Amino acid sequence: MNDDDNLPSPVARAADDIEAHDWSRSDLGPRHGWAPELRGAVQLMRDSLTPMWLGWGPSLCMVYNALYVPMLGKKHPSAMGAPLEQVWAEIWPDIGELVASTLRGQAIGQHDKLLITNRNGHDEQAWFSFSFSPLRDAEGSIRGMMCIVLETTEEVMARRRLAESERRLR
Hints:
- By secondary structure, this protein is an alpha+beta fold.
- The chain contains six helices and five strands; from the N terminus they run H-H-E-E-H-H-H-E-E-E-H.
- The protein has a five-stranded antiparallel sheet, sandwiched between helices.
- Strand 4 and strand 5 (142-151) form a beta hairpin.
- The longest helix has 17 residues, at 153-169.
- It is globular.
């Protein structure tokens, strides 16, 4: 048995983070008052083995799974329950219109999008592939959005190194 066998699964860690958070201090309010659609979306995201987050309500309060935590860096755990624009203020000029389009009902996809993040106390280039999808209530009104996201920084950098190596070889 190795040390990894004693670690909780990402799903269990996500459940712990979400359960432990004091939601009454966020715009979402206590969990017992959440809309069924929000509870269902959180359950789906929490149980996923893909990094995901969702934003709900007028300020798009963030809820995310454990696999998304590495992308947040030092922004975790304070990002839980915080407004999306506050959490990602440094990239808002790059994603704000994509978010607005999603909230108007358009699903959005981006592949290897470069964003200058400040998730570890300094600006850094990072690439992400993601999709934004609107989240609707029972009446069909858009109440939030969900994001499925993969960080592709290592892959982008590897492709760049390979291209540079091939260029030098020629």
